[in-house]
Amino acid sequence: MDPTLKTRITSALKEELPALPRGLRTVAKYIVDHPSDFGLDPIRETARKAGVSTYTLVRLAERLGFGGYDELREPFRHALVSASAGVEQPEWIERLRENGALGEVQADASLNTLAIVQRSLERQLPEQMHRVVTMLLEARTVYLTAVRASYSVAYYLHYVGRMALPTLQLVPRHMNSAIDELHTASEGDVMIAITFTPYSRETIEACTFARRKGVKLILISDSEIVSSDFSADETIIVSVLSTHHFCCYAGATALIDTLIALLVAHGGDTAKARIKSYEDLRRDNQAYWVAQK
């Protein structure tokens, strides 16, 4: 089988997505976001996960020029790599499974966390990370936005990252909206947006507004296809698969830590001096508890 077929199908789906009818668009996005599941699952299970009918899956296959669903799925089966591929199950996880039902839950969640951290980090190309860091360091102002659960990741990036990147601003601040904070943004500025499924309306609107202002956009998400209203200059994909109802942010946090490390390294002596000044400030103001000797 042509080893490039899966990649070419995925590219075609991304290109055609805005023009597809709603049902086919839902399926196309599902395939792009979950290629491993699509390659593994039978048609009824894929239909259930995507929230469409089996007929819709057949229609998409025919629209792409395939004879049927199985023919469309075959390249994905051929290139199948599960979310936990390459992660060896440690002995301590096996021991967790010996502790009843909750032990099984803890073991599955732990193994999933290890898998998505590895999957999120191994897909980051050095060339893209270099472009992202260069874009951030050269920007006049770097805006950083996220809401709800994603805000916790953004707050961490801002709290630590601003010591290496003083132009970093977390928006919205206080009771404003991100759009209020972006009112004076323009070309020469960059915005980092963090959002994971289900994508927050406020973040999508902020991205759309920023792009209209000429601001460069770095998107950190679980999919290359978030909204047809805008396109990012750089999209960094991380896995948020979980064993529970909500996204698992371990992979996103690992990516943020990598980004901070790169910013510190690229910032050189200037960044190190700035970090030391923050440390001195906190020590002088007794920011940290110290045990009495």
What are the defining features of this structure?
alpha/beta, single chain, 13 helices, 293 residues, 56% helix, five-stranded parallel beta sheet
3D structure, described in words:
The longest helix has 35 residues, at 250-284. The chain contains 13 helices and five strands. The protein has helices spanning 5-16, 22-33, 35-40, 43-50, 54-63, 69-78, 91-96, 100-122, 126-138, 149-161, 178-181, 201-212, 250-284; strands at residues 142-145, 168-171, 190-194, 216-221, 234-237. A five-stranded parallel β-sheet has the order 2-1-3-4-5, sandwiched between helices. With 293 residues, the chain is of the alpha/beta class.
What layout of secondary structure does this protein have?
Layout: H1 5-16, H2 22-33, H3 35-40, H4 43-50, H5 54-63, H6 69-78, H7 91-96, H8 100-122, H9 126-138, E1 142-145, H10 149-161, E2 168-171, H11 178-181, E3 190-194, H12 201-212, E4 216-221, E5 234-237, H13 250-284
Helix pairs in contact: 2-5, 8-13, 9-13, 10-13
